Amino acid sequence: MIENTKCECGHNNPVGTVLCEYCGKPLDEAIKDKEKFENEMRYEGKARRSQVATSSLFDSIWNFFSSVKIAIIMILVTLVAAGIGTIFPQEEFIPSRTPEIYYAENYGIWGEIFYSLGFSDMYSSWWFFLLISMIGISLVVCSLDRVVPLYKALKNQRVIKNTDFIIRQRISHQESIQQELKSTTLEQLSKQLEKKRYKIRQDGDAILAEKGRISRWGPYINHIGLIIFLFALLLRYIPGWYLDDMVVIREGEMKKIPDTEYYVKNEKAFAEFYDPKEVPSSSKAKGAVVKKYQTDVSLYVQEPNGQFKQVHKGSTLVNHPVEYQGLSLFQSGMELNPKLGAMTLKVIDKQTNQDLGNFTVDLFDMKLNQAYQVNPDMEVKIEQYYPDFALENNQPITRSQEPNRPAFIFELIDKKKGKSERSWVISGLDLDKQMKDNQYAINFGGLKFVNESALQVRIDKRLPLVFTGGIISMIGLVMGFYWQHRRVWIRYTDGKIYIGAHTNKNWYSLRRELQQVTDQTDLKLKFVD
């Protein structure tokens, strides 16, 4: 680091300055060769905060995040971690509520390691959030550490530069000319450079020609876009900004949409099939071919009084979601085999064979001891319910919670006679003989089947920010790649004319341009072999 930053021209430079802010003279002998000198020209030799000796914890943190090497390491670590996270499906995409068992059974020891190390829920993990945050912080610090001194240097450029500064440029030349030719030569060079769309500034016997400064801001505009993009990615961790979930819902059922205030009701779900005549004979599909899946849904919100208010309704089709205030419901799947949804049962007086009434049991919306009114004088209560009935050691059990073979133990209460009796009802069995002492029989009156639809729920309020960041980033890339920042310094002193030029890229083009300029003057200089 340069401690003594006072230049021979008398200007006091801030600590850490490599090239004098006033005349451009190198302040450190170590950078007087052209290669090192050119590296310092990226930031005009200005002192950057990260080059100042650390005196506090904040300075140490700043220096850490301002390092390009550290930024590259963090990006590589994040890319590797993101790649590892795609080896096996993430938890949100597996068909199991016990991921620790699922990964072990399906992927063996590697699945266990994958789950144990937290890669199964990586994109929602705190450490992945931390990595993305650190990359964002690094982008901000790297940009501020460089763009502020660069802006100050370019804004306050002086026309007159030390000859040492000029001759150490990668493209430079010095030529002895007579005093009487000085004015003519400078005027010719100025006019020719102006024809090349350079902005000309002249101070006495010195000229500064510049164009394409916008190119220097391209990388930093790109950084701004990337910072906005990363910020948008981090918003997924804030509730309400991002949701990607699945709701499986039957016809007639209403469910709360996770992490929202909305409830969705499946009004009707159905699949439409192609007519066999419409299916090409060359098609390899066997059986019925689905033409479309459709679910008619209604959205509700719960009011303070507990009542539900409908706010929207529509029909979901594949790739045509129902949308409401940023919430999208996509048709994701449908069970083509309807499920048993409700059973209508009728009560018969076995002595008179009289139908005393009926009641309907919703198999997905019931509670034990729930009462059903058969008629004004009679009601039925559910004592036990077995959705998928089976016997094990002569004891009733249920094999699953799906109503594949529903069985009930009912208590039938005759209010008029003041008595009650218990009855078994098992799907597919006639139990009248087993319950011959009962006065009443409960028989099947009808079945109601329902379709089940899978709806993908999406909320992504980040998209405007994602697109904004992407557009800004592209603008920065165009600015950086399309334009080149070119400067030409010309100075006449002590009977010599000094010409030096610098660009941030495309050096050959700049040499050719200077050759064309000098060819139109009395100077016969050679910049291109």
TrEMBL record:
Pfam families: ResB (PF05140). Coiled coil: none annotated. The keyword rRNA-binding does not apply. It comes from the Bacteria. One of its GO terms (cellular component) is membrane. The chain crosses the membrane at residues 70-88, 126-148, 220-238, 463-483. It is found in: Membrane. It is a multi-pass membrane protein. Residues 68-514 form the ResB-like domain. The keyword Ligase does not apply. GO terms for biological process: cytochrome complex assembly. Keywords: Cytochrome c-type biogenesis, Membrane, Transmembrane, Transmembrane helix. This is Cytochrome c biogenesis protein.
